[in-house]
Amino acid sequence: KVGKTLGLGAIASWDGTKATRLEKKDSTICYIAADGKLRSQVRTTYYGWKNNETKNTLSSLISIDAGSKASQMQIITEKSAENIATGILKDANGKLSVHNNSNSEWGYIATFGKQSINKDTQGLVLFFRTKQLKEITEDQLNHIVVLQPDKNNYVNYYFMSTWELAHDAIKTEEEFTSCIDDILLRLNGKITVVCK
Asked: For residue 44, which phi and psi values (nearest 5 degrees)?
């Protein structure tokens, strides 16, 4: 139960003091874009999203691939939106860690600890493109990443949770950090396609 927080990776706007989820809008359409053995996707379009007294249309695509712990969020807006944000809910038992190195294409914020509703050990992480990062901040309820869309009004990030009772359980902070580092290595890695 996340209440009024961003939970993990929810789309929000940042007004300089707090993050607000996409609450004021005219209508929303959501559908399953892919439901396969290798990839699943959900596409959502928010029409008439009221953001700083301006109405905008925002489309999101959440994707997860087989074998991946992390989901990708891709966002595009009809008009420029300079205050797109996302984040992780604050929990007194969640130890915050931040990796923001300008020499790395990707960075992250993460929390780890007994932060589930049942007090199970849980890790939450949000990966962002360092070139799209405006600031890392917080409000009363959330650790927040404010993002700068590119010239095509596009933003993307990844989010992931781990749980000590999962089938591929991550139980310690060291295991969680190792998992994050592995994903960060893949995100920062260059893909080369060779045709023969």
From this structure: -130, 135
Alpha helix locations (H) across the chain? Answer: 173-188
- Cβ pair 95, 112 in contact under 8 A: yes
Q: Is the dihedral of CA 89, 92, 97, 98 positive or negative?
A: positive
Q: pLDDT by residue for the chain (196 residues), tens digit each?
A: 678 899 999 999 999 999 999 988 999 999 999 999 999 999 999 999 998 788 999 999 999 999 889 999 999 999 999 899 999 999 999 999 999 988 899 999 999 999 988 889 999 999 999 999 999 999 999 999 999 999 999 999 999 999 998 888 899 999 999 999 999 999 998 777 788 7
> How far apart are alpha carbons 33 and 25 in whole angstroms?
22
Give DSSP secondary structure letters for 111-123: EEES-STT---EE
User: What is the rounded distance in angstroms from the CA atom of residue 195 to the CA atom of residue 61?
Assistant: 30
Residue 158 sits at the vertex; the CA angle it makes with 71 and 65, to the nearest 5 degrees, is 30
- Rounded to 5, what percent of the chain is helix, strand, coil? 10, 50, 40
Asked if residue 46 lies in contact with residue 25, where contact means CB atoms within 8 angstroms, the answer is yes
- Give the single-character DSSP code of 55: E
**How far apart (Å, rounded) are the C-alpha atoms in residues 162 and 146?**
23
